[in-house]
Amino acid sequence: MLEEQDIRAFVHGTTRYFEVAAQQAASVGSPYLVTEGAPEIHDYNGVIAVSGRRNGIVYFSAPRGMLTVLLMKMNESNVSHEYLCDLVGEVANTIAGNVRRDLGKDFAISVPSVVTGAGNSVDLPAGGRPVVIPIHWRSHVAKLVVCLQ
Amino acid sequence: MAANAPALATQLKLLIVDDSNVIRRRIERCQQIEHLQVVGLASNGVEAIEVFRQTDPDVVTMDITMPEMDGIECVEQLVAIKPDVLILIISALADKATAVEAMEKGANGFLNKPFSDRQLNEALAELIGGA
Question: How far, CA to CA in Å, does B18 sit from each of A98, B40, B46, B66, B88?
Fold first, then answer.
C-alpha cells in the first residue's frame, strides 16, 4: 500500500516534469484509490516496473493530443506514432526516476515498455491496489497510475 | 556556471547515448552543439562502446537506464578505453547515490531529467569548458 509520502513524491515528480520539460505547469487532481478492476487507459501508456524496496508498476497514460503538443513544446517536429511511444515511455521513466530523490536508490526502475490503444489494458501486479493521480495540462487530461505492493 | 561556449581551437567530437529518440534529438538541437561535432548516436551501452571505438569521441552524453547495458557500466568501460574522455550523465535517476557512483566510475558531470534547453546548454558548456 502506498504511503502519503510516496504519493507526494510522485505528485512532485509529475508537476516538475511539466514545469521543466514543457515549460508549462500542469495541475494535479486529488489522487484516488481504485478498489475494483484496473483504471481505464488513454491512447499511449508508458509502463515502468519497480523492484527493490517496493515492487509493482508505475505508468503514465496520456491521449495522443497531449503527447503531440508536448513534443511540439519541445521543438520536436516529428510527431509520428513512434515518437509518441518514445515520449510516453520517457515521461514515465523520468517521473519514476525522479522519485528516487525521495525514496532512495533501492527504488529500482526498469526501462519503459509501451502499451498503445485505449481499448487495451496494462497488467497490474496481483493483489495490487492502484492509486490514480489525475494530471491536467492545457486542455488535456492524463493520469499517473502507481500500483506498488 | 558558464552560459557561453569556451573558445576551442578545434571542435570536440560528441557521442550521444540515450534509449530515447526524443532525448537524442533534443541534445542534437542544443545550441552548444555548434561547438561540438556529433559523430555518433547510440541507444544502449553495448552500442555506445561499438560506436565509441569507431568514432573516438572527446565528449559523451550518457543516459543511465537503458537496455542491454546501463550507463554506469558503460561509463566505466569508456573511461578504460579513453581515460580523458569527458562524460556528462543525463538521467532521470535523481538520488545522490547514483550521481556519486557515476562520478566515481569516471563521469565528469550530472544533469537530471527533466531538463530545460538552458540547463542542457549550461551543463555542456561547463563540461567542455575544462577541455
Answer: 17, 11, 12, 7, 12
